[in-house]
Amino acid sequence: MDFFENARTTYAATNAGTLYWMLQRPMLGGGFLNTKQNSLTLNDYGAEDGVRGPDYTYGWIQGRGLEAVVTHAELFGAELPPLAEKLDTAGRRLYALLAALQKPDGHAYFCYDRDMRAVYADQANVVQTQEKPALIYTYSDAFVAKGLVAAASRYGLQDIADHLAYFDRVITAVETGRFQMDERRPLSLHSLAVQPDDFGPRMILLGAAGMLKRAGHTAHLAFADRFIAHVIDRHYDAATGLLRNVPGEDLCNVGHGIEFVGFALDYLDDTADPALIETLERILVSSFRKGFVGPGITLTVSIKTGEAQSPYCPWWSLPETIRSAALVHERTGSAESLDVWKAAHDAFFEHYWRGTPPIAYQTMTKDRPVDFVPATPDLDPGYHTGLSLLAAIRAADRLKPRTRTVSG
Q: Confidence class of residue 404 from pLDDT cuts 50, 70 and 90?
């Protein structure tokens, strides 16, 4: 019981600190979230930092941030009302900006320049204008659609039907081969033709299922069971308990496997097949055991050898492990899931969490923090860390009464 209570207190304080830090920073472009700080030097990025700097706004980050801001506002409405009020003010402002950005052509994009034109930095780090094919959707669409739905649901906005339709179009794009993963190249049929059959898009969009369910949008949930079945049927390696990035290939992004488990369990209810819960627990435990090389979880491992394939250990997979392990432990009560939860908790707060300021090092190797950007240079706007710890808070709250009953 002590671990659950202490973890819950730690997670709430961690998230509140990060959100206060983020909200007191000067906004970008009149209302976009500003987390443009180097996690090593603690220097703010400036115009001289190019695509890391304030002249560039990332649709990815803003969509994630909107979902995080409005979801935390609900939690803190009961526990810390002044913070909830600030979050809702920022959430309404960011919602209006993102809705206006997405509406003209029905899409959101990875990166925008200072004139809010869609651009990308290519492999040579040269900024190029992005193509805008109407029928191709991306991770940026996925994150912005999730954020718009979450905000419109919380604020009772009339455009909710349009945002749900946008989300449904992203789902359709995934299932009809029109979802492009790599946004640092032109959005095109050629890019689609050469990209691997990775489970990433289904995993990320599965992350909306729990939110949609809690908001009452049950008519838009049919995809969730299909996505879970697809990933397990095509990517699960029964011999190792790992998820292959691509069917028939060797690499496993262990963090994505762990994230998939958390999203699935956030959606599944008590009627879920016990065999599915058992498989999800195995994916969690196997992924963590193979991937946790110290101080965190490596980017990829070999299915065949179990060896780490990258020296980089990004921060995000540890809070995702906390979420997944908490939700698994709530279902199974197993010692293994609790051990994984505690190990991820200790590693994150001992090695990654800076405390002052309330941010994490983005990436570490076995020796030290390094300046390696996992996806976008902006720091996490309460999404990977915040929403993961928030799910663990909810799990801990549900576990505490059960523990008291058992001990009493």
A: very low
CA 329 to chain centre: 20
Alpha-carbon dihedral 373, 65, 23, 326, rounded to 10 degrees:
-90
Distance of alpha carbon 381 from alpha carbon 66, whole angstroms: 9
As given in the structure block, the two tokens for residue 125 are 């780090």
Cβ-count burial of 179 within 10 angstroms (0-12 exposed, 13-18 middle, 19+ buried)? Answer: buried
**What tens digit of pLDDT does each residue of 203-222 get?**
999 999 999 999 999 999 99
- Among candidate residues 209, 220, 217, 257, the one with its CA nearest the CA of residue 237: 257
Q: Can you tell me which residue has the tokens 């472009």?
A: 29
Q: What is the mean pLDDT of residues 249-266?
A: 98
SS3 313: strand
Give the burial string for 58-74 (b: 16+ CB within 10 Å, else e). bbbbbbbbbbbbbbbbe
* Residues near 54 by beta carbon (within 8 Å), at least 6 away in sequence: 28, 34, 36, 45, 46, 47
262 to each of 12, 140, 235, how far by Cα in Å? 19, 21, 17
Residue 395 scores a pLDDT above 60: yes
Rg of the chain taking only CA atoms, in angstroms: 20
**Three-state secondary structure call for residue 252:** strand
pLDDT digits over 260-301, tens only? Answer: 999 999 999 999 999 999 999 999 999 999 999 999 999 999
Q: Is 168 exposed, middle or buried (0-12, 13-18, 19+ CB in 10 A)?
A: middle
Q: How many CB atoms lie within 10 A of CB 282?
A: 18
Long-range contacts of 20-25 (CB under 8 A, 24+ apart): 20/83, 20/86, 20/358, 21/357, 21/358, 21/359, 22/65, 22/381, 22/382, 23/86, 23/87, 23/90
Q: Where are the beta strands (DSSP E) in 160-315?
A: 179-180, 236-237, 242-243, 251-252, 301-302, 313-314
CA-to-CA distance for 221 and 98, rounded, in angstroms?
23
* Arithmetic mean of pLDDT, 190-199: 98
Predicted pLDDT at 402: 64
